[in-house]
Amino acid sequence: MNSMLVTLVLLLLLGFAYQTGWSRSSRLAQVEGRLHSKPIYHGALVAIWAIVPALLILGLWALFGTATANTRFRTLTSAVVLASAFGTGAIGLYLARNRISARFRARNEVERIIRYLLIGCSVVAILTTLGIVLSLLGEALRFFTFVSPVDFFFGTVWNPRFSSVGTGSGDFGLLPLLWGTVMIATIAILVALPIGLMTAVYLTQYAKPKTRNIIKPMIEVLAGIPTIVYGFFALVTVGPALAGLGAMFGLDIRATSALTAGIVMGVMIIPFISSLSDDVIRQVPRALRDGSLGLGATESETIRRVILPAALPGIVGAVLLAVSRAIGETMIVVLAAGNSPYLRLNPGEPVSTVTVTIVNQLTGDTDFSSPQSLVAFALGLTLFAMTLVLNIAALFIVRRYREQYE
Amino acid sequence: MSDTSSSLPQQRQHSTIRAGIAKRHARERRFRAYGIAAICAALTAVAILFGMILYKGVPAFWQANVELEIFFDPEIIKVPERPQPQPGQSPAELEKQQLAWERQVTMVNWNRVIKAAIRKAAPDVEIDTKQALSIIETNGRYELRDMFVNDPGLLGQTVTVNLLASANADNWLKGNIDRNLPDAQQQLSAPARALADRLLEEGTIRFAFAWHLFTNVDSRSAPASAGLAGAFMGSLYMMLVVIVLAVPLGVGSAIYLEEFAPKNRFTDFIEVNINNLAAVPSIVFGLLGAAVFINFFHLPLSAPIVGGLVLTLMTLPTIIIATRSALRAVPPSLRQAALGLGASKTQTVFHHVLPVTYPGVLTATIIGVAQALGETAPLLLIGMNAFVAAVPGTPFEQSTALPVQIFLWQGNENRNFFEARTSAAIIVLLALMLALNAIAIYLRTRLERRK
């Protein structure tokens, strides 16, 4: 209610300031002839001068005021803050109004402010990265005060216990989780790479434009499906089907296993690999292809011996991006990987991954002081570092590849 | 002479070439077949996925309802008359009296009323009370109570009421549970199963479209009446936050980088940064939300505003990248014409360049929002997986979201019933995403045609 009232007053201030600037400059225009800037710019500038100081004071108060203000003087301080905010707003309005003259370059000033705003928008992306790095690093360092980094990065046992047992009483070994992550990502790539690449090859080299226009969107539907849906699909359909299939051949495959999660994740990545390879293959110069065909090679020979080798760097980049996506994927593995953090070689057994463990350690309990929840940030940092390296490598390779043919 | 001497090796040469060509053509055909097989595999995956969801989910939209003749028996419902406003009575006092009366109504043994109605519907079935009530969902008694509170004149009357059958009865009647399982593994007792079968045969139990799936909130005690309304509102609030924040920020950032930014180290850094952010796993954004928004700024747990903020940061790179490519596609002649006529740089961009990119920006926004709508993992880390049995009134109240609701339902112990429920929720989510994409395509073609 209170904030609604403040917003209303701010809006009134805004409208009044704009109106003041606008009417004063248009009256001036009638007296002096043409002004440098149109009245709307004068109005906008006055409005900015009135609203920005007020907003600044209110914003600072909202961020830090509640922490410092004594409860006894809360109403008094809030009254003082509000009064000072609107007071400065009024002063800003008055000063900006007095600056209006025929030669005053209001438009240039407004445009400069717009540019600062745009820069501010771009900085949000940097702040996000900074926020990610700082928060992960900060909490991970706190975790490393409980558990030594050597035990974390090279430990082979994952058994964090519960925070109620006491601090530092569990085993926080990263390797079983990393192993599960790598195994699932490998299976996913083994599924997605042949299918995705061959799809891209067929659609770019053989298919008629009409077929291509129908099939490509149908496959790309896979990319738009939420991962929770894949997870459910893996849990309910693929897992039991694989277990049944394994039983037919006398193999012991569990319904929730690395294999289940990996195969479904592979399906999820197919459109990713196929559309990226599609782009890459289309960038191979036509002359290469025509030259090979002209020398009498069949189409498949051209593709295998000329086009794919030429497109290889791009395809490698695509695969790296796909791996990074597979490593960071969460919901499929939460539902279908079985959550069993042991070092096992058999893909038919349940495993656990870095992402699953982050979810397990941080859901329900948001007490950020025990190593049991802080470990999630150390895991997140590991994940972030891994995907960062993969992404940068992929972007680098793809960019080099593009330059080669441009 | 030379002719005959050379013809034999030549023929041999020809035949080896021919054999080689045949082999090469066979290889060509095989390669092509691999391509077709790959496409078929991908399309099969699409088909199985959608087939499974539809097969499992569509039946869940129809649920068993029991149509009972409820007799509001004065013997059982022994409550005084509803307090009426007396002259000289303050409204607060009246409200207090009415609340006390409602509490009394709640204390009535409504289960007995329901049981009497079941007995009447199937007089010759031998069944004890607990078993008979097990085919009606537990929220049935609250429905009767609400009816009575709204209209106390029902006392002594007989009304036909549609009550939801319980989740277990619904399972049994739909055949979701194996009918040949021994009693020990069945969720309903043998007499209750016989009763349900008989009521279905007589038409007392009917399958009706489950509107409550859209109007009710999640429920643990009465799973058959659980609905998506709360999750839907939560998702809606988050999408509003995403649209309000991510679009201006993303478009502004794209404009700066594409139109104003000088080419230097700093802008290069921003660019690499944005490309990287686009590929950061979503769960890392969840960790950021937990550490910064929850732990540092102490925003409320499980609130859509926090979820919206996290998803905003996540969709920002998508919108920036797409808007930049839309801006890059605007022909330079447009900018040159505007600048040549004396427009300032800012005027050129905002009056002439940006309007051309609206279709692209719109598509980017909708793709980003659709992506955010389906995201689950980061929301789990900011506590949106809490059980919330209310529709959130503001973005600051506790709530859940559609994909998180799917996650919660798939984990429910009543597997048989909730597998179908989860699929139904997935259908709703996919339908929403499909609608978003359809809107995007429609608007884009419309806007592009107008140019």
Short description:
The complex is a heterodimer of chains A (406) and B (451). With 406 residues, chain A is an all-alpha fold.
Descriptive notes:
The complex is a heterodimer of chains A (406) and B (451). Chain A is an all-alpha fold and 406 residues long. Chain A has 14 helices and two strands, in the order H-H-H-H-H-E-E-H-H-H-H-H-H-H-H-H. In chain A, strands 1-2 form a two-stranded antiparallel ribbon. In chain A, helix 11 (299-328) packs antiparallel against helix 14 and helix 13 packs antiparallel against helix 14 (371-405). The longest helix of chain A is centred in the first third of the chain and has 39 residues, at 106-144. Chain A is flat and about 90 Å long. By secondary structure, chain B is mainly alpha-helical. Chain B is built from 18 helices and three strands. Chain B has helices spanning 2-57, 91-107, 110-121, 129-133, 140-150, 167-174, 190-202, 212-215, 229-260, 265-279, 282-296, 304-328, 332-340, 345-356, 358-373, 377-381, 402-410, 415-450; strands at residues 62-71, 158-164, 205-209. In chain B, helix 9 (229-260) packs across helix 15 (358-373). The longest helix of chain B has 56 residues, at 2-57. Chain B is flat. At the A-B interface, helix 4, helix 6, helix 7, helix 8 and helix 9 of A face helix 1, helix 9, helix 10, helix 11 and helix 12 of B. Chain B: The chain crosses the membrane at residues 33-55, 236-257, 277-299, 305-327, 348-373, 424-443. Chain B: It is a multi-pass membrane protein.
Give me the count of strands of chain A: 2
Measured by residues with Cβ under 8 Å of the partner chain's Cβ, the largest interface is: A-B, 88 and 88 residues
Classified in CATH, the superfamily of the largest domain in chain B is MetI-like
Mean pLDDT of chain B: 87
Estimate the global geometry of chain A from the Cα principal axes: flat
Please give the CATH class of the largest domain in chain A: Mainly Alpha
How many domain modules of chain B?
A: 2
Strand order of the largest sheet of chain B: 2-1-3
Mean pLDDT of chain A: 86
Unreliable spans of chain A: none
* Computed Rg of chain A: 30 Å
What is the spatial order of strands in the main beta sheet of chain A? Answer: 1-2
Secondary-structure-based class of chain B equals mainly alpha
Order of helices and strands of chain A: HHHHHEEHHHHHHHHH
> What's the overall geometry of chain B?
flat
Order of helices and strands of chain B: HEHHHHEHHEHHHHHHHHHHH
- Named at the architecture level, the CATH assignment of the largest domain in chain B is Orthogonal Bundle
